[in-house]
Structure formats: structure tokens, C-alpha cells
């Protein structure tokens, strides 16, 4: 703020449209320096601009989020994951049962177990 006119920086901090137009004509480096000075003044003096004003930061508008819709979507996602886990567990149990059945059939017929390596 020392290199710039303090009244000009204060006008930008308060959201003066004419000052903002003048700043837009300046080179990028000077606009960034002025933006830093404006933000520092706003922080130091707790200034809330009357309009969007001059700032180096992009301030996006927040959208309303429906909390009920979010909770419903999360619940659906958790239900799907639970169903997937149950399906995987059932498939695993079926595979184990089939492997056990095959091993028992081999044992009954007198064949060696096929999971042992020859020595």
C-alpha cells in the first residue's frame, strides 16, 4: 500500500466501481500488487465491500446442497456396497464348498490330493 495512493486503495477496498475500472486498465503486475494491498487493507480494517470489488482471489458463489438428498444418496451407496460384499461372500463360500466337494470325491476314489506338490 505504500507505493499506491491510500485513498485509491481504500476506494477499491470499499468496492468503488470507478476505481475498479481504472485498475482494469493497468498491467497485470500492477493489478496484482494493488489486489494484494486491497486484500491487506480489508483484513486489517475488516472492510466488507459494497460490491464484488477488487480482489486477487476468485470468489465463487456457493450452491445450496440438499442435505436430505445427500444422505439418501449415501444410504443408497452403502446399501449397494453391502449387497456387493454379501454377493462376494456368497461366491467365496460356494467356491470353498465346491473345492471341498471335489477334494472329498478325489479322496473317496483313492486319488492323491491335487493341492500337494510331489516330493
What report would you give on this structure?
By secondary structure, the chain is an all-alpha fold. It folds into 2 domains: 1-58, no CATH class; 65-111. Helices cover 64% and strands 0% of the residues.
Globular, elongated, flat, extended or rod-shaped: what is the shape?
Answer: rod-shaped
Range of strand content = under 5%
Listing every helix as H and every strand as E from the N terminus to the C terminus, the arrangement reads HHHH
Mean pLDDT: 81
Low-confidence stretches: none
What is the C-alpha radius of gyration, as a whole number of Å? 35 Å
Tell me the span between the first and last alpha carbons.
85 Å
Coiled coil: 70-100
Keywords: Coiled coil, Plasmid
Question: How are the elements arranged and paired?
Answer:
Elements: H1 6-13, H2 17-24, H3 28-45, H4 67-108
Amino acid at each position: 500500500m505504500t507505493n499506491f495512493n491510500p485513498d485509491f486503495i481504500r476506494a477499491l477496498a470499499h468496492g468503488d466501481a470507478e476505481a475498479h475500472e481504472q485498475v482494469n486498465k493497468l498491467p497485470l503486475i500492477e493489478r496484482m500488487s494493488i489486489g494484494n494491498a486491497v486484500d491487506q487493507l480489508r483484513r486489517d480494517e475488516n472492510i466488507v465491500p459494497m460490491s464484488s470489488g477488487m480482489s486477487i482471489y476468485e470468489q465463487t458463489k456457493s450452491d445450496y446442497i440438499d442435505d436430505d438428498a445427500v444422505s439418501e444418496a449415501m444410504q443408497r451407496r452403502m446399501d449397494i456396497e453391502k449387497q456387493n460384499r454379501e454377493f462376494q461372500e456368497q461366491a467365496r463360500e460356494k467356491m470353498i464348498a465346491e473345492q471341498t466337494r471335489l477334494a472329498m470325491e478325489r479322496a473317496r476314489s483313492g486319488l492323491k490330493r491335487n493341492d500337494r506338490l510331489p516330493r
